[in-house]
Write a structure and sequence with these properties.
The complex is a heterodimer of chains A (about 300) and B (about 210). Chain A has about 300 residues and is an alpha+beta fold. Helices cover about 35% and strands about 10% of the residues of chain A. In chain A, helix 6 packs parallel to helix 8 and helix 6 (about 205-230) packs antiparallel against helix 9 (about 290-310). Chain A is globular, with a radius of gyration of 24 Å. Chain B is an alpha+beta fold and about 210 residues long. Chain B is about 40% helix and about 10% strand. The relative contact order of chain B is 0.11. Classes of the chains: A alpha+beta (about 300), B alpha+beta (about 210). At the A-B interface, strand 3, strand 4, strand 5, helix 4 and helix 9 of A face strand 2, helix 1, strand 3, strand 4 and helix 6 of B. Strand 3 of chain A pairs antiparallel with strand 4 of chain B.
């Protein structure tokens, strides 16, 4: 896991990327507990200043050197790569020798860092002009992100490299299928050449971007439309503003629709109380509203349940 | 999770208990014992506060470290006669540092190495640890002995529905450890890669 951080002690607005390692053999409760000390710092990588503003004119094959991890891929960081499937005899905590195959299973990082790690292209939606990043796991076109229109295939890097090789030697039937058309850049990034590792499998959704700023935001838009349709929007806003302060709970000053930008922390706070607020807003339903209200509450409750389970 | 409002469609039943899981025979078996491990264990039981002589020495050291007491203040503590060095087995910061190094027998795995990265204009130093040594360090911790998982398993509830909980109960681990014909390792894949390399070499030579 890694997260870009600013070095406040040293001057010059320097950034560094610490990378941490832990073992998947430990149950998540034990692994994530701070007192277990199961997470070790691997390197502390300084980010060279010129990497933060890459030049515009550059050879396609050299684009990988622009990302922070790409720079290290051609230097000493290469020794981190376990290129072959090697079995190591390691001592287990129970005092026995075991044959171990160290494999990179996941890389937990924020979305923007995943974009840098996987060297994903930023696409501009041709319809709406919105700049968005393509998905690191699935082959979703930028225009279809969030629409949930169909099931998309998982990115297969072996096929990408195969097509790229065929294009390069000029013996191809897939000249139109380029890495750029799939929203990625194929280069020697940090995952290049790792055996038993499919880069698309390494991406794991994080709570901030997937749940708080993704699912919750989508759910709140849906709830707003639902309440508007049934004439309960004002009631919801009244209950929303009447929330009492509680330790760890931020009291909202404005109605949901009056807030232009939501932060992850506030969205998490919303997740804690949205079900109660909705239940109050939907009280005393009419005979025709009974079933839709019940279904809406069930949907929201399911999502809040998933959030509560996923946060551990 | 059951709730009264769910009675519209679902017939709620009691939460199912997990039935017998499917294990992969032979996965994660040990291939031998480590020499001296039993002795290490018995020493740990007999001398619980080792390398400190007593609970007093250990608690005093942890108080210094957790309180982030500066080295000079620790030396002052002993030189002014406040601390009893004979009961604590250390009477200055230097001795305490030596004891702390002996405290973790596997700390040698966590050595830092220095590397260089060139960004085109200048060379920057960076520090890193050996990734395999970090794995060795974590694997050797006796504290994780009861929690460690060595093999994947498939768990089901009483209705035969698959239950996904920890990482070892999901498909990724099972597919990687159980399926011998992984596409990354298959002979066809290797042959194809070699053929492509030969072709590229010919192109360069021509």
């Amino acid at each position: 896991m890694s997260d870009q951080t600013h070095l406040t002690i040293f001057s010059g607005h320097k950034k560094a990327w610490p990378v941490y390692i832990t073992l998947g053999n430990l149950p998540s409760g034990r692994r994530n507990s701070p007192t277990s000390m199961a997470v070790l710092l691997l390197p502390l990588l300084p980010i060279p200043q010129n990497n933060q503003s890459p030049p515009k004119q550059i050879n396609t094959r050299d684009k990988s050197t622009l990302t922070p991890y790409g720079t290290y891929s051609n230097s000493s960081l290469r020794r981190y790569k376990i290129r072959r499937m090697i079995a190591y005899q390691l001592t287990a905590p129970d005092g026995t020798l075991r044959r171990c195959f160290p494999i990179l299973a996941a890389w937990i990082a924020d979305l923007m860092e995943n974009v840098a790690l996987h060297e994903i292209k930023s696409n501009v939606c041709p319809l709406h002009g919105i700049k968005s990043n393509v998905c690191p796991r699935y082959e979703v076109p930028a225009v279809e992100l969030g629409t949930n229109m169909k099931v998309y295939p998982v990115r297969d890097y072996t096929i990408y490299y195969h097509y790229d090789y065929e294009n390069w030697i000029g013996e191809t039937d897939h000249a139109d299928i380029t890495p750029e058309s799939r929203g990625i850049r194929l280069g020697q990034n940090v995952f290049y050449g790792l055996n038993q590792v499919s880069p698309s499998d390494l991406h794991k959704p994080d709570m901030l971007h997937t749940v708080y700023l993704g699912l919750f935001k989508h759910m709140m838009d849906w709830i707003q439309d639902f309440l508007k349709k049934h004439g309960r929007l004002e009631t919801f806003d009244e209950v929303w503003k009447a929330l009492l302060p509680y330790p760890g709970c931020l009291v909202p000053k404005k109605a949901y629709r009056e807030v232009t930008q939501w932060q992850g922390k506030k969205m998490r706070n919303l997740g804690r109380c949205v079900l109660g607020l909705l239940a109050v807003a939907l009280r005393q339903p009419g005979s025709a509203q009974l079933i839709p209200f019940k279904r809406a509450l069930r949907c929201v409750r399911a999502l809040v349940d998933i959030n509560i389970m996923a946060q551990y | 999770m059951s709730h009264n409002s769910d009675t519209e469609i679902f017939n709620e039943t009691a939460s199912p208990l997990p039935s017998k899981p499917i294990l992969y025979e032979g996965a994660g078996e040990s291939i031998g014992d480590v020499k001296g491990f039993e002795q290490e264990q018995s020493n740990l039981y007999q001398h619980s506060w080792s390398p400190f002589s007593s609970a007093h020495g250990f608690k005093l050291a942890s108080c210094f470290i957790e309180g982030k007491v500066p080295k000079s203040r620790i030396n002052e503590y002993f030189s002014s006669g406040l601390g009893n060095g004979s009961s604590a087995r250390y009477s200055c910061m230097h001795m305490l540092e030596n004891l702390l190094q002996a405290f973790d027998p596997h700390s040698g795995y966590l050595q830092w190495n220095e590397g260089q990265v060139d960004d085109g204009k200048r060379t920057l130093p960076f520090f890193y640890r050996n990734i395999l040594d970090c794995v060795r360090y974590l694997l050797r911790q006796i504290a994780y002995r009861d929690d460690f998982v060595y093999a994947p398993r498939r768990e089901y509830d009483t209705n035969g529905q698959r239950i996904y909980a920890e990482m070892h109960t999901a498909d990724w681990w099972w597919d990687l450890q159980v399926q011998p014909h992984n596409p990354f390792l298959s002979k066809q894949s290797l042959t194809e890669t070699r053929r492509q390399f030969r072709q590229v070499r010919r192109l360069f030579q021509s």
